[in-house]
Write a structure and sequence with these properties.
The protein is an alpha/beta fold. The protein has a domain of 169 residues. The chain is built from 20 helices and 17 strands. It comes from Candolleomyces aberdarensis.
Length: 564
C-alpha cells in the first residue's frame, strides 16, 4: 500500500493525527502544507474549534508548552484572518505563564491580515494575593501593552475586556482630607465644574517618583499612588503607555468592559487614550466592581463621558447598590444616545428607582430604544410628563426584560402586574408613537423542564390575574395595547429559550408558545432567540406561524435567532 493510498481521506488522517503525542504532532505539521492543515485541524477539533476563520474560542493552557488551540493556530500556515476570536486565560494560574500566553497571543495577532472582534477574558484577580515585584509588574504591563497595541494595529473594530483587575487594586486615589466628595456635592450648581476638573483642583497632579526610563504618567494618572512594598524603597510609576500612533491606526467602534479595572492604573492610561482616539459609538460596562469611594467612581464615569462623547448605544450591567443615581445623571451627558440598556439586576434592593432624577434622561433628543426592568421604564415614562414635548423623542421602543426564576403562582402574578403597570404608563406617556417589546428569558430555572411545564400550564389555564371576589378575569380583559387616537402602539414578544432551532420548527414547544401568546391577543411580532438578536434571523415555518396567528390575528412576523 502506497502512502497516497493510506492518506486517502481527511477523516482517517485526522483520526491518526489525533492519537499522536504533542511533539510528534508538531513535527508532522512542518512536513508539508497538507500535513499542516490536517495536523492543526486535529488539535482544533479536540478543542471544538471547527472553523477558526469564522470564530474561535481559545482556552489557553497553564503550561505554555501544551498544545492548546492557540499553539495550533500558531503552527498553521493557512489561517490568515480571525474575524472573531476569544482568548480565555481562566486556566492560567501562574503570572509567568500568563505573560508567556500574552506573548503567544501577540504573535498570533501579528500574523493575521485582519482582525474584527477580539474578546480577552483574563480573570487576573487570581494574582492579587501573590507577591509581585516591580520588575514583574513592569514586565506584565509591557507584555499586555504590546498585545493590545498589536490588536489595534490590525484594525480591530470590537474589543471586549473581562477581568484585567490584577494590579488595579495596588493603586489608590490620593485624596486631600480637607476636601471630601460630600463638599463637592454641596457646591452650587453654577460653580460646579465637571467632576474631573474639580478633582484636578485638590488632588496632586504631578507624580514625583517617575523614573527616567519610564514615560511620565498623564496628569490624570498622577492622582494615583502605589504603596511601596518591603522589597522596594521607591514606588516607580508603572503602567501601559499609549502608542503615539494610536489615533492613526485605531478603527475601534465598539468597546466592552467586564471590569472597571481597565479604567484604573496601570491600564487606564492606555484605555482612555484609545477611547479618545477612536470613533467609539457603542460601549458596554459592568459596574459591579467600580470603587466604593464616591470621588473615584465619579472620576471614572466623568472620564468616560469625556473620552466617548459621541456614543449612541450604552449597555450597563451589574451596578452595585446606591450607584444608579450617579449613573443616571451621567447618562444625561450623552446627547447622541439612541439606545440604552440597563440590566434589571442593576436595580437591587439598595437602588430605589423612585429616587432617580430621570428628567435629564427624558430630554435626550435622539433616544429611540430603552431596555430595562418594568419599574425603570415606568419611572422614565412618568418623567416624560414633566418635560417639554418638543424635547421628547418622536418614537420610542421600550423593552421590558423579565427573567423567569420560578414558575410559582406568585411569580406569574408578579409578571402580569408588571405588564399591566407598564401598559398603563404607556397610555399616560406624552409620546405619539411608542412600541413595547417584552423580552422573557427562561434559562435560570434550577429544574428547567418541569418548571416550564408548570408555568405554561398556569398560563394556559387562564390564571392571568389574582382571583378577586371569587371570580377570575377572562383572558380578553388583559391589556391588549390597542392604539388610540393620540397614540400608536405596537407589541413585540421575544422568548429566550434553551431549545434548538429544529425543535422550534418541528413544533416541540408550540403548546408553551401558544399559551404565552394568549396573554397578548394583539401581538404583532414574536422572536425566538438563544442568546441575542443578531442577523436577519430565519422565518418560522408556515404551519407554526399559522398556529400562532390563529391566537394573535395581528401577528405579521415570527423569526428565529438561534445559535445552537
Amino acid at each position: 500500500m502506497t502512502m497516497s493510498d493510506f492518506w486517502c481521506t481527511d477523516e482517517l488522517a485526522l483520526h491518526t493525527f489525533a492519537s499522536l503525542p504533542a511533539p510528534d504532532l508538531r513535527n508532522c505539521a512542518q512536513v508539508s502544507r497538507s500535513f499542516n492543515r490536517t495536523a492543526v485541524q486535529s488539535v482544533l477539533d479536540q478543542h471544538k474549534i471547527w472553523n477558526p476563520e469564522q470564530s474561535a474560542v481559545l482556552q489557553l493552557a497553564d503550561n505554555p508548552n501544551d498544545l492548546d488551540g492557540l499553539s495550533a493556530l500558531l503552527l498553521s500556515v493557512h489561517i490568515k484572518s480571525l474575524p472573531s476570536v476569544l482568548f480565555s486565560l481562566e486556566r492560567v494560574t501562574a503570572l509567568q505563564s500568563a505573560l508567556k500566553a500574552f506573548h503567544k497571543m501577540q504573535r498570533l495577532v501579528d500574523r493575521m491580515a485582519s482582525l474584527h472582534s477580539v474578546y480577552v477574558n483574563w480573570p487576573s484577580n487570581a494574582y492579587q494575593n501573590q507577591p509581585i515585584s516591580d520588575k514583574m509588574l513592569a514586565a506584565a504591563c509591557k507584555c499586555v501593552e504590546e498585545f493590545l497595541d498589536t490588536i489595534i494595529s490590525k484594525g480591530c473594530a470590537t474589543l471586549q475586556f473581562n477581568g484585567f483587575d490584577a494590579f488595579a487594586s495596588k493603586y489608590k486615589l490620593k485624596k486631600n482630607p480637607a476636601i471630601t466628595a460630600a463638599e463637592i456635592a454641596k457646591a452650587p450648581t453654577a460653580e460646579r465644574l465637571s467632576i474631573w476638573e474639580g478633582a484636578r483642583g485638590y488632588l496632586p497632579s504631578l507624580h514625583t517618583r517617575a523614573t527616567s526610563d519610564v514615560l511620565s504618567p498623564l496628569s490624570e494618572e498622577g492622582n494615583y499612588s502605589r504603596k511601596p512594598s518591603r522589597f522596594s524603597i521607591s514606588t516607580p510609576w508603572i503602567s501601559l503607555t499609549p502608542s503615539p500612533k494610536l489615533s492613526q491606526v485605531t478603527k475601534l467602534t465598539t468597546f466592552y468592559a467586564g471590569s472597571t479595572g481597565v479604567f484604573r492604573p496601570p491600564f487606564s492610561q492606555w484605555t482612555f487614550a484609545l477611547l479618545k482616539a477612536s470613533a467609539v459609538t457603542c460601549i458596554t460596562l459592568s459596574l459591579q466592581d467600580i470603587p466604593d469611594g464616591g470621588v473615584e467612581s465619579k472620576l471614572i464615569l466623568d472620564r468616560l463621558a469625556e473620552a466617548t462623547p459621541d456614543v449612541n448605544a450604552i449597555r450597563l450591567h451589574s451596578a452595585r447598590p446606591g450607584l444608579m443615581k450617579d449613573v443616571v445623571t451621567w447618562l444625561g451627558r450623552f446627547q447622541q444616545l439612541g439606545y440604552l440598556h440597563i440590566d434589571p439586576a442593576c436595580f437591587s434592593a439598595g437602588n430605589n428607582v423612585d429616587d432617580l432624577e430621570l428628567q435629564a434622561l427624558a430630554r435626550l433628543p435622539h433616544i429611540y430604544r430603552l431596555s430595562s426592568s418594568s419599574y425603570f421604564l415606568c419611572a422614565y415614562l412618568a418623567s416624560c410628563r414633566s418635560v417639554d414635548g418638543e424635547s421628547l423623542p418622536r418614537a420610542l421602543e421600550v423593552i421590558m426584560r423579565h427573567m423567569w426564576m420560578s414558575s410559582t403562582e406568585s411569580a406569574v402574578s408578579a409578571f402580569i402586574k408588571d405588564v399591566e403597570r407598564l401598559h398603563n404608563a404607556i397610555l399616560e406617556a406624552p409620546l405619539q408613537c411608542l412600541y413595547l417589546c417584552i423580552f422573557s428569558s427562561f434559562d435560570c430555572f434550577p429544574d428547567r423542564a418541569k418548571a416550564l411545564g408548570r408555568l405554561w400550564s398556569r398560563l394556559d389555564s387562564g390564571m392571568l390575574r389574582p382571583v378577586s371576589d371569587a371570580r377570575e378575569v377572562s383572558l380578553e380583559a388583559l391589556p391588549c395595547f390597542r392604539a388610540t387616537r393620540k397614540h400608536e402602539h405596537g407589541l413585540i414578544l421575544v422568548l429566550r429559550i434553551t431549545v434548538t432551532e429544529d425543535e422550534i420548527q418541528r413544533g416541540v414547544v408550540d403548546g408553551e408558545v401558544v399559551a404565552f401568546c394568549r396573554m397578548f391577543p394583539t401581538l404583532e411580532e414574536i422572536l425566538f432567540c438563544s442568546d441575542n438578536l443578531f442577523g436577519p434571523g430565519l422565518p418560522l415555518r408556515k404551519e407554526g406561524f399559522d398556529k400562532l396567528k390563529s391566537v394573535c390575528p395581528k401577528l405579521r412576523r415570527a423569526r428565529l435567532f438561534m445559535n445552537v
